[in-house]
């Protein structure tokens, strides 16, 4: 009995969009195969665990959201452990291992996990296993899979050490050192299923050898290169280690066509939603520009929607109608689209903590679920691929899906699914014998997320109006998808406002079109730091190429209105660095000159990366290059006058280059080495005077 108790460990997860929870569930599933019991809870469920008295090892899986914040489910936990009155030995009894999830495209990589890890250490907790930091930019599985592999030995060593300290009998200790064989309810005897492709199994029911032969025939008939649908050695000749088959936990009952779908606001838990009309739509780029950029104006006069320049709004958007129809056709449910379905948890499911997904109504039409609730464009996780294997009848297709979710096929998964943005529809076209059930889609497809956009206006300057700017996202055709796609939200918005664009000229400041009768649902996403300085006399610099200029239009509108209303105030100088490809094609806001003329904007520096120049010295192409031309001004504003520095736009190709330029400027002007300059920049970030609003 004592020995069994010592095999328990506490498994906590903190998730924003479900990623950390899915990984925790994978750990929970594998634990049984190692003779261990994972007591799994969301970190917010503080009534179900108590770290102050916890004696068993603790495993924490935590994601990062926003600009480095812990997920919403961890806010109370983080606030509690950051209490400065806690003694340094508060968690001295605690042994833990932590897996942090993040995206290196963002400045504060894995900061949610790092914050918890650092604070637990400060309070005396000890690692029984090294911290893992997984990067969604290159593929979480590159760190997650080996981290989970090593977890079991680390846990057993922790149990052995703990038992020896507590004087456990030598027989009980010895029993822990052996890996027990536990028959799993999912017909798997370990955390992976080893698929042996031996000649004697040629006639067996799973026909794995036949699948291997089929794939080689097809591959040799075409080419020697791997693709989404076929493999080459060594993957095609490997015995495969594939994930545990996730237990089903959703049950779907089809009903009649009578009833009403729930209101869209019931799908949003992040804040109050508002239905508002679009009153204006303007194309800011010329027709021959590489990207199409639109500005939309919303009427919020009759709502309580409140915002500051620098905040964001979220738009609730549907999936593409034709994609939903195609999915219904492939699933054989075209005739059932308008039928209501009742979704509930399957009785007797083996899934730990199975619960009704919050983003799925208990009763709605099938088409409503596929249109408004599920992210059908999501890149399928390996657990989803593993489940799809069981829905596939063709032997060759089944084998390839097994390869793509296996350890041996990790690089193929990254190349042909993750990097190619392959979605469920692409898979169903590529593997036509795969016929998943509706409950499987509800179990594995994530929630359709609202899309976030920076506000590009000031409520002080334009009362009752809200503007935002976006590029229409384009996904080019690829081998897995013969046609190009537009972004889920930007494609929908562009079609929605087409009548406004057609009833007005296509440049800003020209004839106004009529308002749309159809409304869009939005909710606010305040930004706690990316705001104008509280003291108007403080100078600041803004760097915003492309649509990164969006929040700064709101900044300048707000500043102009303040200057008009408070003529006795002192206002600091303002700098704006803007860049685009071509001056005559995508210079988004040429009325910036007006801000210069009325004194709202002190300095405007622009660059055009694709325009040719006849000058002897070629002008700088990118904003990071322009910044380097003003080193003394940057140092004066940031250090001598304690001003602010705002960066908005693309992370990888711009924001990193800007921070490198600032580091070089600090190093040169302060006459210190680069490491010291980087420390100075880190201090500016900590003081919230070097601020970023970036995306990947």
Q: CATH class of the domain at 7-162, anyone? A: Alpha Beta
Task: Please tell me the CATH architecture of the domain at 7-162 by its name.
Answer: 3-Layer(aba) Sandwich
CATH superfamily of the domain at 7-162: Flavodoxin domain
Distance between the termini: 51 Å
User: What is the makeup of the main sheet?
Assistant: 6 strands, parallel
CATH topology of the domain at 7-162: Rossmann fold
Helix content: 25-40%
Q: Structural class, from secondary structure content? A: alpha/beta
Secondary structure tally: strands: 24
Question: What fraction strand?
Answer: 15-25%
Average per-residue pLDDT, rounded, comes to 87
User: Mind telling me the C-alpha Rg?
Assistant: 28 Å
3D shape:
globular
EC number: 1.16.1.8
GO molecular function: [methionine synthase] reductase (NADPH) activity; flavin adenine dinucleotide binding; FMN binding
Cofactor: FAD; FMN
Keywords: Amino-acid biosynthesis, Cytoplasm, FAD, Flavoprotein, FMN, Methionine biosynthesis, NADP, Oxidoreductase, Phosphoprotein, S-adenosyl-L-methionine
């Amino acid at each position: 009995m004592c020995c069994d108790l010592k095999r328990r460990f506490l498994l906590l997860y903190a998730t924003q969009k479900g990623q950390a929870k899915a990984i925790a569930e994978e750990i929970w599933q594998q634990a049984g195969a190692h003779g261990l019991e994972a007591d799994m809870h969301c970190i917010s469920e503080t009534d179900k665990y108590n770290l102050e008295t916890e004696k068993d090892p603790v495993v924490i899986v935590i994601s990062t959201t926003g600009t480095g914040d812990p997920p919403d489910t961890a806010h109370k936990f983080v606030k509690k452990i950051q209490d400065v009155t806690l003694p340094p030995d508060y968690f001295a009894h605690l042994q833990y291992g932590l897996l942090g999830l993040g995206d290196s495209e963002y400045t504060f990589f894995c900061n949610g996990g790092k914050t918890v890890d650092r604070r637990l250490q400060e309070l005396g907790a000890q690692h029984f296993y090294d911290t893992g930091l997984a990067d969604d930019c290159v593929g979480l599985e590159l760190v997650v899979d080996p981290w989970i592999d090593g977890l079991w030995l680390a846990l057993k060593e922790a149990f052995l050490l703990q038992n020896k300290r507590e004087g456990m009998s030598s027989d009980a200790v010895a029993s822990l050192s052996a890996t027990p064989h536990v028959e799993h309810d999912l017909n798997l005897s370990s955390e992976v299923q080893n698929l042996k492709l031996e000649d004697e199994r040629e006639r067996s029911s799973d026909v794995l050898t036949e699948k291997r032969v089929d794939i080689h025939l097809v591959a040799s008939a075409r080419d020697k290169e791997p693709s989404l649908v076929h493999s080459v050695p060594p993957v095609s000749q490997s015995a495969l280690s594939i994930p545990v088959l996730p237990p089903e936990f959703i049950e779907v009952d089809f009903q009649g066509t009578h009833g009403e779908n729930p209101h869209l606001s019931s799908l949003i838990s992040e804040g109050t939603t508002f239905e508002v009309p679009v009153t204006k739509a303007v194309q800011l780029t010329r027709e021959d520009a590489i990207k199409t950029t639109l500005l939309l104006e919303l009427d919020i006069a009759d709502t309580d929607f409140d915002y500051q320049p620098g905040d964001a709004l979220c738009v609730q958007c549907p999936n593409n109608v034709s994609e939903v129809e195609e999915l219904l056709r492939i699933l054989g449910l075209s005739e059932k689209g308008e039928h209501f379905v009742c979704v509930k948890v399957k009785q007797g499911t083996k899934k730990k903590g199975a619960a009704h997904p919050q983003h799925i109504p208990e009763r709605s039409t099938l088409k409503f679920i596929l249109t408004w609730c599920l992210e059908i464009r999501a890149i399928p996780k390996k657990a989803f691929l593993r489940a799809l294997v069981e829905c596939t009848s063709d032997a060759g297709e089944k084998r390839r899906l097994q390869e793509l979710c296996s350890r041996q096929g990790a690089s193929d998964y990254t190349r042909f699914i993750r990097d190619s943005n392959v979605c469920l529809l692409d898979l169903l076209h590529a593997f036509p014998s795969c016929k998943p059930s509706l409950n499987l889609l509800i179990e594995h497809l994530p929630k359709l997320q609202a899309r976030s956009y920076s506000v590009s206006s000031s409520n002080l300057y334009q009362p009752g109006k809200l503007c935002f700017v976006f590029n229409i996202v384009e996904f080019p055709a690829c081998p897995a998808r013969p046609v190009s796609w537009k972004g889920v939200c930007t494609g929908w918005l562009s079609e929605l406002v087409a009548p406004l664009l057609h009833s007005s000229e296509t440049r800003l400041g020209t004839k106004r079109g009529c308002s749309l009768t159809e409304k869009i649902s939005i909710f606010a996403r305040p930004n706690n730091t990316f705001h104008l300085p509280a003291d108007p006399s403080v100078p600041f610099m803004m760097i915003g190429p492309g649509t990164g200029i969006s929040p700064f239009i709101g900044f300048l509108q707000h500043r102009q209105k303040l200057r008009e209303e408070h003529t006795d105030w002192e206002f600091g100088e303002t700098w704006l660095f803007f860049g685009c490809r071509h001056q005559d094609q995508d210079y988004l806001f040429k009325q910036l000159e007006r801000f210069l003329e009325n004194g709202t904007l002190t300095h405007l520096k622009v660059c055009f990366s694709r325009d040719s120049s006849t000058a002897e010295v070629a002008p700088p192409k990118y904003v990071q290059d322009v910044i380097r031309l003003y080193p003394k001004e940057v140092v004066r504003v940031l250090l001598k006058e304690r001003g602010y520095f705002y960066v908005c736009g693309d992370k990888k190709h711009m924001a990193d280059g800007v921070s490198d330029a600032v580091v070089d400027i600090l190093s040169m002007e302060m006459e210190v080495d680069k490491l010291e300059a980087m420390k100075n920049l880190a201090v500016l970030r900590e003081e919230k005077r070097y601020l970023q609003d970036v995306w990947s």
